Amino acid sequence: MLTYRLTFLISGLCMGSWAPLVPYARERAGIDDGALGVLLLCLGLGSLVMMPLAGVLNARKGCQFSMILGIALVCLTLPLLATVHSFYGLMLALTFFGAGCGLVDVTMNVQGVMVERSTGRSLMSGFHGLFSLGTIVSAAGITLLLWLGATPLLSTMVLMVALIVFVLTAGRYLLGRGAEQGPVFVRPTRRVLLIGSLCLLAFLAEGSILDWSAVFLADHRDVAHSLAGLGYAVFAVMMALGRLNGDRLVARLGSRRILMLSGAVAMLGFALVIVVDNWLVGLLGFAVIGIGVSNVAPVYLSLAGSQRSMPGELAISMATSIGYLGILLGPALIGFAAKATNLSWALSMTALSLLAIIATAPRLFAAQLKNGSR
Questions:
Q1: How many other CB atoms are found less than 10 A from the CB of residue 233?
Q2: Domain count of the chain?
């Protein structure tokens, strides 16, 4: 079980490694905000293209092969992200880095569902808590090394050593192919598409805080730029804590109630941020949002893996791919909405979209019981 938990922690380490390198890459390449947006789009597109293919790799080759391949892509591209000066070189490196992260992300969820099935226990929220912890440790650790004077290359080498040690010591304990040996591609069912669309809303809420919380605090609450990042920091910490305790809550309350309660709590957090003109209350609101959204995606991914309308590996990769659009395109849509109205209204629309999570929870689990899935 330790190896499976470490898989999520390692996946988080991969995902969080790029953020501290962004200013350095931008300075080396001499690019403006628009060009930086193109680079970030390459990262997202690499992940988005790989995620459906990850379902095929997991079905044919198993989690062990897919996880090691994803980590290898990350290790091969991290030194390039820390040293390349060419804009087009960074585009290529970020595309393959995103592909590696996308493969690792889908694989960890496939393995998580397989472990849930074999144990008969709800484990996905705790697994994702370790993923969130990994992103925090990776981003903070590389930032600390850079602050202490290490070069970007040396900082990434430290992370690469950790990833290689994991592969050498624990890689052989990862799961092989699952029990489902059906076709490598099937047409997504309406149920899986619905789960993926609801994942999109959860990821949209997460992406809105990641990309817009600092802007909101700085522009609408007059917070100093040096402190504006606290919004995402408290959100990330509370999301990690919520996920680490999520399995106990799911076991006690049930997945349906967790989704309904999570949507309501997240909407309350958005209300605190938007309505109360006080930046400290805003920080409290971001923390409440973190608690609210923490267990939504894990519950949906567990549901995608346990449904019987299509193979679990393919269902998870499809739900993850659709959900990832919330992070990839959501912040841009919020930007367009903010330009047409203002940022408060744009965040309000994000909050209102969470009503769909509350409204669909009873129907989702009624259908689950009818179909006889877990």
A1: 18
A2: 2
